[in-house]
Amino acid sequence: MDQKLTFPDGDLQAQADEWASRAKALAPMIRDAGDRTEQEGRVAPDVIKALHDAGLFRILMPRSLGGAEATPLAYMQVLEEIAAADGSTAWCLGQGLGCSLASAFLHHDAAAEIFDTPDGVLAWGPPSGAKAIVTDGGYQVTGRWRFASGAPNCTWFGGHSVICDADGTPRKGADGKPMVRTMLFPKSSAEVIDVWDVLGLRGTGSNDYTVNDLFVPQSHTTWRNSEPDRREMGALYNVPLLTMYGMGFAGVALGIARTALEEFMKLAQEKSGSGMSVKLCENAVIQSETAQAVGKIQSGRAFLVNMIKEHWEATLAGGDYSLDLRARLRISITWSMQQAKEALDFAYQAAGTNAIFEKNPFERRFRDIHTLTQQGQAHRANFQFSGQALYGMTPDHRL
């Protein structure tokens, strides 16, 4: 499928809706593959191919590399639609897209080697004592990393590593902190360690991976948001990586919750409550709680979309994000994720025993959203840090 779409300048919503419609067209096959994705601990290969064929793994890549260079709103809405079909698939796509932003901070040849293939996907996760020893032309890298979402389907890994001299002493930057860069290497150079025995998002295959004394050339290293590394000047690459991830994670949560609530509303029109002669949909409590759940999802989404658009306006203006803007965006990300979880919890509980069977559309989504909201972007501590910013204080944590 041709992935190059053209829209009038500033037609932000039209672009996002078009990409979301492409994602929605894949929903039936993604939903049908959900059991395989869950059981095999990886997104089904035919689904991965369909995502590639639709150009969805390239929507954040530079146009110079054949990408769409789309917007954060398009990213969020694509993940929302994919998550409505399957949470693990959406999570892997979201992580792969976040990693693909590295293509704008690499030499063109290196970026093309990693991404310009029919199945090119980069995966990475947080480090655990990884070191990169400076050597001629690059680094000798040893380390282990965690939570590499999409590891079973990726072709390259990235390893965030502390830069060290030959004796192992970390080099420090101007801020006095150890310097860190991301080492990029083929998946075949690493050992994948299967540790992903978890409650939810089982299909993400978010395993550990390790390398020992691996040479990585300087050309295949970068660091998030590093202006000296930046090769592409498009506005998209002003957006901080962790901010982009937050927008995407929120979209995944909203998509999972939306489908769970829709499925409950279908059930409520057929099922009678325990000891009741009327259907669930005729029960006053269920009616009230359903309305509130819809309000939670839709108001959380509206807040998020509004803040993504406002953030994009600041991005187009050069990426000078005020503390107040960053605080309100952070609130919208965490708030929408928490509201989605609350709405899904209602659907799960109100569905009664129907919810506990794997064959029904509640149990996996319940596990997935409770796993998703364990991620730092959903933690309620974000409200504290945002509140500090709203009062003009310096937050204790990066927003």
Total tally of structural domains: 3
- Count all strands and give the number: 8
Q: Approximately how much helix is present in the residues?
A: 40-55%
CATH superfamily of the largest domain: Butyryl-CoA Dehydrogenase, subunit A, domain 3
Q: H/E order of the elements?
A: HHHHHHHEEEEEEEEHHHHH
Number of helices: 12
Which spans have pLDDT < 50 for at least 5 consecutive residues?
1-9
Multimeric state = single chain
Helix/strand-derived class?
A: alpha+beta
CATH class of the largest domain: Mainly Alpha
Structural summary, described in words:
The chain has 399 residues and is of the alpha+beta class. The protein has three domains: 12-115, Butyryl-Coa Dehydrogenase, subunit A, domain 1, CATH 1.10.540; 122-225, Butyryl-CoA Dehydrogenase, subunit A, domain 2 (Beta Barrel), CATH 2.40.110.10; 239-390, Butyryl-CoA Dehydrogenase, subunit A, domain 3, CATH 1.20.140. 45% of the residues lie in helices and 13% in strands. The protein contains twelve helices and eight strands. It has helices at residues 12-25, 27-32, 34-40, 45-53, 72-85, 87-100, 108-115, 241-268, 284-316, 323-350, 363-372, 381-390; strands at residues 122-125, 131-135, 138-148, 156-164, 180-186, 191-193, 207-217, 221-222. Strands 1, 2, 3, 4, 5, 6, 7 and 8 form an eight-stranded mixed β-sheet that branches. Strand 2 and strand 3 form a beta hairpin. Helix 9 packs antiparallel against helix 10 (323-350).
